[in-house]
Amino acid sequence: MWQLGSGTKLSDMKILVTGANGQLGNELHIQLDKEFPGSAIYTDIEELDLTDPKAVEAYIVNNDITHIINCAAYNAVDQAEEEKMLSARINNDAVKNLAIAADANGAKIIHISTDYVFDGTNYRPYRESDKVNPISQYGTTKRKGETSLLALSPEAIIIRTAWLYSSFGHNFLKVMLEKANTQQDLKVVCDQIGTPTYARDLAAAIVKVIQSHQWVPGIYHFTNEGAASWYDFAKAIFRIAGINKKVIPIPTEDYPTAAKRPSYSILDRSRIKATYGVEIPHWEESLSDCIKLMKQNGMLH
Fold first, then answer.
1. What range does the domain containing 153 cover?
2. What band does 264 get if pLDDT is binned at 50, 70 and 90?
3. What is the value of pTM for the model shown?
4. Is 245 among the domain residues?
5. Is residue 237 included in any domain, yes or no?
6. Which of 9, 11, 23, 297 is the one with CA 20 to 30 A from 131?
7. Model confidence pLDDT, tens digit, residues 153-165
8. Which residues are catalytic?
9. How far apart, in Å, are the Cα atoms of 270 and each of 128, 165, 204, 263?
10. Residue 288 resides in a domain
């Protein structure tokens, strides 16, 4: 049996996926069960409270965990402005608990972070080394989580992603499809630019990292290829789904929200491609795959 970069035999791996009920957690469930049958354990708040340090350490020790993929997050961006303590507990304190337990037991961590650690004032795709400057409580707590993790578990890998959607969970794609049935015309922001990212593609990239012969710690960026506004994304959803719906572009100022969002948050994906040989599809190609799957599963007619 060949060795992984982490020094763990493939057959001896025990992978803990936290936040397993979310869209990325569900996509990982499918891919890990296929690639590493019987090697993964999936938890959410019901099975493991990540804000309880003793519970986290006991769980990692008792289950001989070798790898942790932390998908758990407080990601209600606007609500976080009100629930500051709760968002900090989940996005920072829980990450600290995982880091301490992992470091004590020699487990490797892949932690999922966000484009919201940036302020959106860039003129080119953000690199991992670019200065962070979060402009929301959500972005601030996620950045604190990154800093805590790297301080306590220097061997960790952090993957920042953006604009995540899937056939699972709650996301922009599903909101647009629901609103298509209830609203005549849809107004969608046209001056925030990023990259819609299929959670299934991110899950595949994470699996590729775990399968790799090497483990190169640090921060990586992963989204699908290309760029779009939320308006472009909405237009593409309806076109690909075959739904005739008028979408009206509006500026951010016409759609006030509790939290500020970066106006430009395209991430540079060069590092993960060069280090792990990850191949990344264009966002429209992946959106087509997701909508096709939803139709096949009877989620969309």
1. 10-170+196-225+264-281
2. very high
3. 0.95
4. no
5. no
6. 23
7. 999 999 999 999 9
8. 138
9. 10, 22, 17, 22
10. no
Res. 10 pLDDT band, cuts 50 70 90: low
126-175 pLDDT, tens per residue?
999 999 999 999 999 999 999 999 999 999 999 999 999 999 999 999 99
Closest CA to 27 of 241, 222, 179: 222
Please tell me the total count of domains within the chain: 1
* CATH at residue 35: 3.40.50.720
- Tell me the residue type at 80: A
Q: What are phi and psi of 282, to 5 degrees?
A: -70, 150
In a domain, 184, yes or no: no
Looking at residue 4, its pLDDT comes to 45
The terminus-to-terminus CA distance of the chain in angstroms comes to: 46
pLDDT band, residue 72 (cuts 50/70/90): very high
SS (H, E, C) the chain: CCECCCCCEHHHCCEEEECCCCHHHHHHHHHHHHHCCCCEEECCCCCCCCCCHHHHHHHHHHCCCCEEEECCCCCCCCHHHCCHHHHHHHHHHHHHHHHHHHHHHCCEEEEEEEHHHCCCCCCCCECCCCCCCCCCHHHHHHHHHHHHHHHHCCCCEEEEECCEECCCCCCHHHHHHHHHHHCCEEEEECCCEECCEEHHHHHHHHHHHHHCCCCCCEEEECCCECCEEHHHHHHHHHHHHCCCCEEEEECHHHCCCCCCCCCECCECCHHHHHHHCCCCCEHHHHHHHHHHHHHHCCCCC
Q: What is the C-alpha separation between 117 and 123, in angstroms, rounded?
A: 16
Q: Is the pLDDT of residue 9 over 80?
A: no
